[in-house]
Write a structure and sequence with these properties.
The chain has 14 helices and 12 strands. The chain has about 350 residues and is α/β, with parallel strands linked by helices. The strands form 2 sheets. Strands 3-2-1-4-5-6 form a 6-stranded parallel sheet, with helices on both faces. Strands 11-10-7-8-9-12 form a 6-stranded antiparallel sheet. Strand 4, helix 4 and strand 5 form a beta-alpha-beta unit. It binds NADP nicotinamide-adenine-dinucleotide phosphate (NAP).
Length: about 350
């Protein structure tokens, strides 16, 4: 058996579920002739109450101790501050990193890109939570020139909108989403569209341009806070439900990225229920491809983190951005009415 030293940064919504899966999947590791040895679990407050399967003796605020003997770092802290310092340190030491942190990927790309190109960064969980998206875009669909991509990428806003369709107020729906662990630590990231913008930036770099600028996506992002419950209910009644859609398409010879609420055309797969996420991709070779599945939730997301760990153990590299910019396509593109 090979012993693999894994440092876990964060034991919150996703981190605790990752620990649960680690404890339940010993047979899968055995099949890979590997034993996972946790070097420590970095948290802010080791005294905080956590589920019984979290090994309390490993909880610490000492980042140095956790990273000292690490051979892999699993970053589930979130944010772009301390997480960036630690991820940067690990990568600089030649330690591969698995992360679900789309904010970090989107906003700190100048630091991270060289490591991603070297296959040291695994981030399936960063887009669409537990549902496949990153691996599909970085691998399976690379034989295509992408023509357009539209995604419902933020489960919290979908959940809020589907609860508003059922007559609940924005505030009630947001509180429910937080209770269920769907919302980001700062829910403004969800409802202002920033989380979806982070994910669109990650996807744009995988399929269109490895340097796609975060600032450009951020500047073209609008959230759902201005929507009224009546308007949301009426649109749903007419069969054109409102969803926060992140789009990548061509305009005047350039790639354009945009996040905004739109009325989804009748019967279109982007009309997702609950926290369901969806990506509608059109490529020149394959035509239309639709990916759907849960886009948030601790357990679903932890499944994707674990998948990255299996990939790493099996010797596959992490997710690399598009090797070069792809020409921006001319339309026509899917028509989406902004609200
Ligand atoms: N939640 C989801 O459904 C979901 C889905 C996809 C991706 N993600 C991504 O996954 C990551 C983790 O999300 P989460 O929902 O699990 O977050 P969370 O519940 O807020 O957990 C964050 C964890 O990191 C620890 N932490 C945060 N800042 C720290 C610091 N400066 N020093 C030491 N420890 C620190 C916290 O410690 P304490 O426990 O002591 O506070 C906590 O254990 C984020 O990047 C998020 O965007 C989440």
């Amino acid at each position: 058996m090979e012993r693999l030293n894994v440092a876990l940064l964060g034991a919150g919504t996703v981190g605790t579920q990752f620990l649960k899966l680690l404890s339940e999947r010993e047979d899968r590791f055995e099949a890979l002739a590997t034993t996972v040895n946790l070097t420590g679990i970095l948290v802010r407050n080791p005294e905080r109450e956590r589920p019984e399967w979290v090994p309390k003796n490993l909880l610490t605020t000492d980042a140095e101790a956790v990273l000292r003997d690490a051979e892999v770092v699993v970053e589930l802290m979130g944010g772009t501050g301390r997480a960036l310092e630690l991820v940067d340190y690990a990568l600089g030491e030649g330690i591969p990193v698995i992360t679900a942190n789309k904010a970090l990927l989107a906003e700190a790309w100048d630091d991270l890109k060289p490591y991603a190109e070297d296959g040291m960064l695994y981030y399936e969980a960063a887009v669409m939570g537990g549902s496949p998206a990153v691996e599909v875009m970085a691998g399976s669909l690379r034989g295509n020139y992408p023509l357009e991509l539209h995604g419902v990428l933020n489960g919290t806003t979908s959940y809020i909108l589907s609860r508003m369709e059922a007559g609940h107020s924005f505030g009630e729906a947001l509180a429910e989403a937080q209770e269920k662990g769907y919302a980001e630590a700062d829910p403004l990231f969800d409802v202002a569209g920033i989380d979806a913008a982070h994910k669109l930036t990650v996807l744009a770099r995988l399929i269109a341009d490895p340097e796609f600028p975060w600032e450009e996506v951020r500047a073209n992002t609008k959230g759902i806070t201005h929507l009224k419950a009546d308007e949301v209910m009426q649109a749903a009644d007419r069969g054109t439900p409102i969803r926060l859609v992140a789009s990548l398409y061509g305009e005047e010879g350039r790639w354009r990225a945009k996040v905004r609420p739109v009325k989804v055309p009748k019967g279109h797969p982007l009309a997702t229920p609950g926290v369901q996420n969806a990506i509608f991709f059109r490529g020149d070779a394959v035509g239309e491809v639709v990916l759907t599945g849960p886009g948030a939730g601790g357990l679903a997301t932890a499944g994707a983190v674990l998948a990255d760990l299996f990939r790493l153990i099996e010797g596959y590299p992490g997710h690399s951005p598009a090797p070069a910019p792809v020409p921006a396509p001319a339309g026509p593109f899917l028509e989406l009415e902004e609200v």
